[in-house]
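Model it.
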Amino acid sequence: MVLSSRLIAALGLGAAGAVCLVAPIMGQGQPPQDRAVHRTAAAGSTAPAAFKEPIAPMIGTVDLEAVFKGYEKVKAQGEEFEAAAMAKKKDLMKIQTEMAQEAEMLGKLAPGSDDFKKRENHITELKARMEAGREQAEREFSAREAESMATLYKEIQVMVQKIAEQRRYNYVVRVSNQPITGSNPNSVMAAMSNTMVYSDPRNDITADVVFNLNKWYAAVGGRAAKPAAAEDAAGAPPAAAAAAAQPAAVR
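Modeled.
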């Protein structure tokens, strides 16, 4: 097929126009070759700031799961939480027992009688009380658990920071020191999902964090860690880490 002269001309103009447009666009898209690259200007300043020399990364590791297991305050609060939950459960069980008694008495009454209606209404009232009590308990315990976890995490975070500063680490990454065994498929899957494949155990601060958290907790009136448990979980802390016995943000 022979292209018409008009079509050829139109294509020619289109190509020429494309060349004219592409040239400035490509020029705009390229970084300047004759200018130095600068950092974003500081607040309140119009002059671009020069890049600072990077700080060499010094990385430590911590096993947060082991810290939570070894921190005596976590255990104490867990026991308090369980005791409060059991007390609330007993209150609801009393209502349930009363409902069972009322249902038993209801079965002995003639349907439609005044006594039958009275007990039936009472059972309905007890059901509503039990459901309201259950929902309220769920809300209260959920909020209490969230607040407790937030407080515990902040305390651990402060202690990690203090020990990291003592050891001159500017990064602390989370690792898992749990053993990997073929008999426990979960341990294998958990290990494979970890970002950190290998870390030098000499840079691990888990034991120091547990030891100093328990030392601080005992100092502010919490229960002291059992000697055997403390030794197994934390071992002997270095002198520098022992000086960080109290989290700065925790009073």
